[in-house]
């Protein structure tokens, strides 16, 4: 098979450089161009020394990336991907967007949470939102724009999908307590991500107003077949990477054994979702640097509550790895291509 020419726009952000690292080793892809507004003209290995002598590509313009590539990965803040999508459509280039621009179906919701509307509604009508384990059937060769899901929403959707799809999850009263490593805030520095602020600290942020809330509710509503409402509270962990989401919900469940059987059956054929044994707890260390999602299931019989813990690496399964998994689906490749990563033991 001829290798897929891939390019990355926003290659010097944390998500972008993860794409560089993973695509360099992908057996069916060839990294042909990378771009960055902040570091244009420099080699990407000048910014990230780990790439020196391995990937020494000069950072160019987004137009060069688009014209050189079969597939463009855009790893940019919200509001910047629509114009790229338009340019890709003109060149018949596929766009896999790691930003938020194509994640929400409802323009009013997008405007409410992100402060801007859709510039070109026709682009949104032909985009596909895809968490591979839940939406892969929507992706075919006609897809030109794939909206790569957010990191928190990925951990939550995979954590609740088995109950939601069975119709036994109550769509109301869901409480999501999520913790993320600092890379989730992006490469740009802010007061809250300075080393002295993060090191030795642990805090909630954007309580009940985080922009991933509508994406979580949109996906859960689709899975449940009725509107879902969640209380979502993210926290900042003093670690580089990883997300741990602990989810509290009500479902028609009577024992942890019943719960474990449902999850084991639902994910039995999924390479990247591991349902842990009863009594084990999912943890960040076991998924870091991998495309896996580890799920542990628990049942509080006294309160009648289901408790699900879902762990991913926010930069891989929550961003770059999932984007590559989506590319693999689109081109009919094995979903594990370029993603056979094992988490370090320590």
What can you tell me about this protein's structure?
The chain is an alpha/beta fold and 346 residues long. The protein folds into 2 domains: 4-125, Rossmann fold, CATH 3.40.50.720; 152-313, Dihydrodipicolinate Reductase, domain 2. The chain is 31% helix and 21% strand. It has helices at 14-24, 44-47, 62-68, 81-91, 107-114, 121-125, 132-135, 151-166, 195-198, 213-224, 256-266, 316-330, and strands at residues 4-9, 29-35, 59-60, 71-74, 94-97, 127-129, 145-147, 174-180, 203-204, 230-236, 243-249, 273-275, 293-300, 305-312.
First-residue to last-residue Cα separation: 37 Å
CATH H level, superfamily name of the largest domain: Dihydrodipicolinate Reductase, domain 2
* Structural class category: alpha/beta
Q: What's the structural domain tally?
A: 2
What's the CATH class of the largest domain, please? Answer: Alpha Beta
Low-confidence blocks of residues: none
Q: Which architecture of the largest domain would the CATH scheme give at its second level?
A: 2-Layer Sandwich
Mean pLDDT: 96
The strand order across the widest sheet is 3-2-1-4-5-7-6
Percentage beta strand:
15-25%
Helices and strands, in N-to-C order? EHEHEHEHEHHEHEHEHEHEEHEEEH
What is the count of DSSP helices, taking H or I runs of 4+ residues? 12
CATH topology type of the largest domain? Dihydrodipicolinate Reductase, domain 2
Major β-sheet profile: 7 strands, parallel
Principal-axes shape call: globular
Rg of Cα set = 20 Å
Find the count of extended strands (DSSP E, 2+ residues). Answer: 14
Q: Helix amount, in percent?
A: 25-40%
